[in-house]
Amino acid sequence: VILLKTYISSSKSHKRLPPSPPKLPLIGNLHQLGSSPHRTLQVMAQTYGPLMLIHLGTVPILIASSVGAAREILKTHDVTFASRPKLNIPSRISYASKDIAFSPYGEYWRHVKSIAVLHLLSNKRVQSYRYVREEEMSLMMEKIRRDGKLVVNLSELLVSLTNNVVCRVSLGKRYDGRNFKNLLERTMTVLGSFSVGSYIPSLRWVDKLSGLEKKVDEFVKEFDEFLEGVIIEHEQKKEVGAQGPDLVDILLEIQRDNLTGFSIERDTIKAIVMDLFSAGTDTTFTSLQWAICELLRHPQAMKEMQQEALKIGQGRSMIVEDDLEKMPYLKAVLKETLRLHTPNPLLVPRESTQDVKLLGYDIPSGTQVFINAWAIARDPSVWEAPEEFRPERFLNKPIDYKGFHFEFLPFGAGRRGCPGIQFAMTVNELVLANLVYKFDLSLMGEDELDMSETFGITVHKKSPILVSTTPRS
Ligand code: HEM
């Protein structure tokens, strides 16, 4: 037995792990991450290489910072890295990981992901909600027109617009009372909170002591009561509205008629709806917000976009979704924004489910992985003048964000890739096209736009965008 133990431990110590920065006992490298972990990790990778192993608390985390490393993880070994770590807060919010985004890889995840891909977020389904997007966009434009020369808080309007679209599409109507707005805001705050217990399990009591656990429990209870009310309302409906079913109607139909050959619990429905809000609203609004900032900072790009919009709009009252395909510059502006301001700079953490060899290193099963998509999208060996905003780089180039080009991964890639691309980008394109078509925007109170970022899974602009607007004739 002793010989066997000695053999096992010596073979373990012969494993070739990726390089690691020096760490402190207990907290590992936590103290080094700072308020912009993607930026810190980019700098660290210059010393330790494109595949490095850091320690957040006692948890080893693999950081991939090059095209090659990302391709190995998301393509060559996609199945091995297709799981998610069990993180304290996301797991509680998602009904013990019964959602799509945080459920571990396996049969259950396959079922819920296929419900999303085939029934909730397919191109056809997204198309069917065109009237919601066009109505909400027109309402926002009308609001801007009314406020006119006064200060317009574009950030606030964009948050409302994306929340309203997701609400109407998934729940069938707008919930714009203060309580609901507050609940949505708390979703992001709670999801972005740092749980000591997730990284230093022996210090889990700190989360209790700091009030974090109580805050999460209260939020979960309140959101659950809200969703329960929504589901009961849907169950009591005699028939679906004239404009067709919303996503809760569809989930209830799948449950009732057992359409997928897999029985769905009520908690699964709630967890999926929670995903639509937590994964769909914040990311969409953030990318729109950064796009507007970049256009405000680059008048030539703004002019180019306005010319394209004028040519397509031809004096009509608005640009409609059919027009968007004919607007390559608009698409290039949004791609360039997602490159420079990847909404989830480290994507969503993955976890390996078996031992694997990666770029010559041994990666043990159960290793958490962050892909630094933000750093890869600014890698000077791949991108020319990577720090500059140049939408032209995407014109007449096949490079897309659908997960086949590993230098550009705002939506991830492989089987865990984002199923909401079409949903998000149609809103983004429609709103941005109409905003520049209908208004000239100028900054209020700032000579130079403050581009500081917040901390969290999704990185926002810290301060709101305040502009004055002039309607274009
Ligand atoms: C600009 C907007 C968006 C961005 C940047 C974004 C980004 C991402 C990223 C990086 C991932 C993880 C991918 C990976 O692990 O490889 C993801 C997953 C996911 N996203 Fe999105 N997303 C956006 C919009 C949406 C929308 C609108 C929805 C739904 C309405 C959505 C639903 C999801 C879901 C359910 C997952 C989990 C997929 C899985 O684990 O299998 N996302 N998204």
Automatic annotation (TrEMBL):
Pathway listed for it is:
Secondary metabolite biosynthesis; terpenoid biosynthesis
Domain of life per record: Eukaryota
**SUPFAM superfamilies assigned to the protein according to its UniProt record, in alphabetical order:** Cytochrome P450 (SSF48264)
What this protein needs as a cofactor is: heme
Q: Which UniProt keywords apply?
A: Heme, Iron, Metal-binding, Monooxygenase, Oxidoreductase, Signal
InterPro entries documented for this protein: Cyt_P450, Cyt_P450_CS, Cyt_P450_E_grp-I, Cyt_P450_sf
Residue numbers binding heme: 418
Gene Ontology biological-process annotations: sesquiterpene biosynthetic process
Gene Ontology molecular functions: heme binding; iron ion binding; oxidoreductase activity; oxidoreductase activity, acting on paired donors, with incorporation or reduction of molecular oxygen, reduced flavin or flavoprotein as one donor, and incorporation of one atom of oxygen
> What is the protein's name according to its record?
Cytochrome P450
